Amino acid sequence: MEILNILKEYQKSYFQLYNQKYTRYLFKKINFNSKLIGIVGARGVGKTTMLLQYLKENSLPITKKLYFSADNIDIDSIFDIAYKFSQVGGKLLIIDEIHKYRGFEKDLKKIHDLTDLQVIFSGSSALLQHQ
């Protein structure tokens, strides 16, 4: 199965697991119009919940948005995933736990420079400091 299809299946599972009715306080403070948004914080503060809430509330069709967690899959390149997704009409890419992927900074720059995707990513501040 191709990686985008696998990630879409994972995304469906996440949607079923995260059914929080309230939104995180930070949700209303973020300018979601930016092309590249990074959310860093300690483990357990609700980054994943907030990202999934934004994904659900965003008005784009589900085919144009993709969420995945970098700590749950083995991937060679975040850029390759992003590029393939943009080629099939993707518009919003959300990458959770990006700090688990070595070299994410270079891939984020390439995604920003070579695609029209909006990218929102999260990482754990505690883990970033100890790498």
By CATH, the topology is Rossmann fold
How much is the radius of gyration in Å? 14 Å
The coarse overall form would be globular
Major sheet details: 4 strands, parallel
The averaged pLDDT comes out at 85
Account of the protein in words:
- The protein has about 130 residues and is α/β, with parallel strands linked by helices.
- It has a single domain, classed as 3-Layer(aba) Sandwich (Rossmann fold), CATH 3.40.50.
- It is about 40% helix and about 20% strand.
- It has five helices and four strands, in the order αβαβαβαβα.
- The chain has a four-stranded parallel β-sheet with strand order 1-4-3-2, with helices on both faces.
- The longest helix has 15 residues, at about 5-15.
- Mean pLDDT is about 85; it is low at about 125-130.
Write the layout of secondary structure elements.
Elements: H1 3-17, E1 36-41, H2 47-57, E2 65-69, H3 78-87, E3 92-96, H4 104-114, E4 118-124, H5 125-129
Parallel strand pairs: 1-4, 2-3, 3-4
Helix pairs in contact: 3-4
Short description:
With 131 residues, this protein is an alpha/beta fold. Helix content is 40%, strand content 18%. The chain has 5 helices and 4 strands, in the order αβαβαβαβα.
Overview features:
disordered C terminus; 4 strands; globular
